[in-house]
Amino acid sequence: MALNSQSSMNTKRAIAAVSWFWGAFLFAVLLITSSTALAQTVEPTASDQSKIAPALADALRTSPGDISFLVILSEQMNPQQVVAAAGAEDIVAKRAALYAALTEHARRTQAPLRAWLDAQGVSYTAHYLVNMLEVRGDLALAQQLARRPEIGRLVHNPLVRGFEVFDASRPSWLRQEALSASPASAASATLPWGLIDANADDVWALGVRGQGIVVAGQDTGVAWDHPALQRAYRGWNPTTMTGTHAYNWFDAWGRDPNLDRGCPVDPQIPCDDDLRSSHGTHTLGTIVGDATGMGDTVIGMAPDAVWMACRNMRNGFGTPASYTACFEFFLAPYPQGGDPMTDGRPELAPHIINNSWGCPPQEGCDADSLRQVVETMRAAGIFVVASAGNEGPNCSTVKNPIGLHDAVTSVGAHASNGAIAWFSSRGPVTVDGSGRLKPDLTAPGVGVRSAGRLSNGQPTVNLTLSGTSMAAPHVAGAVALLWSLEPGLIGKVEETEQILLDSAVAVPSADCLSGTPQSPNPVYGYGHLDVLKAAQLVSGERVAIAVKAFPPEGGVLSGGGVVVPGSLVTVTATAAPGYTFVNWTERGVEVSTEPLYAFTAQENRRLTANFRPPIWLPVISRQGGVR
User: Fold this and answer.
1) Beta carbons of 525 and 468 less than 8 angstroms apart
2) Which of 60, 145, 281, 593 has its CA 20 to 30 A from that of 524?
3) 8 Å CB contact between 379 and 98
């Protein structure tokens, strides 16, 4: 029995072994067959392939490894509809509603895709201003993603130069020049010509210097502790002499010890990695800089505004994703390392954003996604200013995001004589078939003096640069002045932009047009920036009484501002130590010899209080020498 049982068991094992063999064989055959069938059935269709943008397809085919690209979902929100549905009058409430709707929509619609990417071990960064994810992968991954029904399109996320490199070997308009190693003395320092050209000083004379307004810059970063900028940094506490950087600064690149050697290791600490031209520091200086503490002058359009910033370029190169990340930080600021979809605080958003950079579509930048970004910011009531570009003098050279888009105010550059800078990009915009007029207006952009650092790392306010990058900050600062003058305009982007255009000094031109010279035109747009005329338009039926001292250090003035016609106005001049009050003049004509001047306001007036400086007398020493 035992032998028979053993024999029976062996027979069963043999049968089982044979069965296992054939089962395994058949499974393998089926597996191979099914895999082949699967490969055949999921081969990308023409429709799937069309989701992959040509620039991305070319890059994927030629790249030896993984590259960065953007996965844009089909479902996108309309920000204007969201804001309208919110029904909130308060601008902060509108932004909060928009942020909540965009982030909820992104989290919900991205969830299946994010779960799939997690399962595949594919890293990604999620965005919400555009419902998209940034991923790194190859052609196979792109094709797999293109098959998914929720995907609208796949576009390249190229690393592109965001602005011209200013080099002494290039034409003079591209050169940077550190005029001196130390700031000019107070006695000889003069305001940067662009501030005078735009009449910013006349608006200051109304008592308006940008108070209560937050301006942001996304650029190469900023030297936050620069003496001309630190005072105006929103994170600066003058009492404790310390800075709080969370919510006031974000670095879209983080920090790499090899690539960011010019910056602190901690990405939460601001820096400007452009060691040649201090591009981000320079542009921000033109908006809010005040170097009077350095023995120089005010260098910014709105010196009493405060600033925040984001580094969107590393060593002068940015990507559509890095630009988008900065805009997301500005809509709802969050700490470095935080989650933009859950940690954002829209109540800390800036009022105005300056953008002195471009993202060329010919290098793979996706114009549509960046258009969606700036349209969302406009819906949020945030004023977006952009440089028009430095690709002139040919027509239709305003062609790069974001300067080409209708949702931004695009700025060309003119020189101190009023002539257009030859490098300033011209319209009309033809790259998208719109034919829209761009630039919207021009501002000072040739030989602009502002903040930066010398080659030895020392701060200066005598760094002179040229480009539409320098022109745009003048307009950003002008908006800060207007919104400070009339807080009821805050968030009303369309109305404010129209005021800037209506008040611009028209410069007729026939270039890039057929026929006689006209204004507006594709060279100057609506004309030169004039913030005083804009302020007068904002004042409406009120009249503006501007007061200024000559010389500026000669005394302290009070009174003036925007008043109702018929009001009694009193202006007072108090001489500084050593100075003597002389008289009040208007357009060179004396109107009073008394320091206290009272009159009934009937029209706009520009009064100057004149002071006589101390008389310097030589002191004769006992030895007969002059001391």
Assistant:
1) no
2) 281
3) yes
Question: How does residue 44 score in pLDDT terms, banded at 50, 70 and 90?
Answer: low
How do residues 427-456 score in pLDDT, each as one tens digit? 999 999 999 999 999 999 999 999 999 988
**What letter represents residue 207's amino acid?**
G
Residues 6+ apart with CB under 8 A from 602: 543, 565, 566
3-class secondary structure, 533: helix
Neighbouring CB atoms inside 10 A of 369's CB total 24
Contact 386, 409 (CB under 8 A): yes
What is the C-alpha to C-alpha distance for residues 68 and 377, in angstroms, rounded to an integer? 25
pLDDT surpasses 70 at 20: no
554, with CB counted inside 10 A (0-12, 13-18, 19+), is buried
From first CA to last CA, the distance across the chain in angstroms is 133
CA dist 220 and 252 (Å) reads 10
Spatial contact of 312 and 357, defined as CB atoms under 8 Å apart: yes
Helices vs. strands in the chain: H and E counts, helices first: 14, 26
Q: How many residues does the chain have?
A: 627
> Tens digit of pLDDT for each residue in 163-182?
763 333 334 333 333 333 23
CA pair distance 307, 214, nearest whole angstrom: 5
* Stated pTM of the model: 0.84
The reported pLDDT for the residue numbered 164 is 61
**Residue 244: CB atoms within 10 Å:** 14
Give, as one character, the DSSP assignment of residue 518: B
C-beta of residue 447 within 8 angstroms of C-beta of residue 418: no
Amino acid at 489: L
Please give the distance of CA 420 from its chain centroid, rounded to a whole number. 23
> 299, 228 in Cβ contact below 8 A?
yes
Write down the residue that tokens 């940008």 correspond to.
Answer: 210
- Find the helix or strand (DSSP H, E) in which 353 lies: strand 352-355
CA distances from 74 to 43, 77, 116 (A): 21, 10, 17
Q: How many Å separate Cα 625 from the centre of its chain? A: 58
